[in-house]
Amino acid sequence: VFIGSEAVRQGRLSPYRLRKRFRAIYPDVFLAECATPSLRTRSVAAWLWSGRRGVVAGLAAAALHGARWIDDDVPIELIWRNQHAPAGVITRNQRVQRDEVTRAVGLPVTTVARTAFDLARQLPTGEAVARLDALMRATPFRVGQVWLLAKRYPGARGLRRLRRALPLIDAGAASPRETWLRLLLIDAGLPAPETQIPVNEN
């Protein structure tokens, strides 16, 4: 995946060859005509579209941190100020500090804690907990770090959702279905079930 105008300007491709052998996935961002873009490829493409200035966030960031159960076609979220995002990209005009950005697969990505902070605020509680369970299982993080971000951004949208979701995180959930069942039991007034209990065959 590459920026078309850069490739032409640098003499790596002619305009004719660019049109014939490649297709635009986002404005001026191309990949091979026959390629099926993965989430990782689309994340790189979205970052290139931003002029290499955006920070990958949300579900795309969670996937790049290793979280499972995220489809390749989810919108790529970027923290970057631009109101004219192409289809398949969501831009968020939000503050992000240096200590909330890391790198994954060569891209600037929100840290695991900042990713959890965003997911917990932006998604309905049930979905948020499932996504947070998967993120915690893939790349363990301290929930306390997420609470610190809530203190850093006291006026951020969705903090009420965050306060509901964070206490429900359980890295022992091996799938969204397990998360859903656990939340169903809790909603019914039962104690939170203990997950992944070792069983002795003897």
Automatic annotation (TrEMBL):
The organism's superkingdom is given as: Bacteria
Q: What is this protein called?
A: AbiEi antitoxin C-terminal domain-containing protein
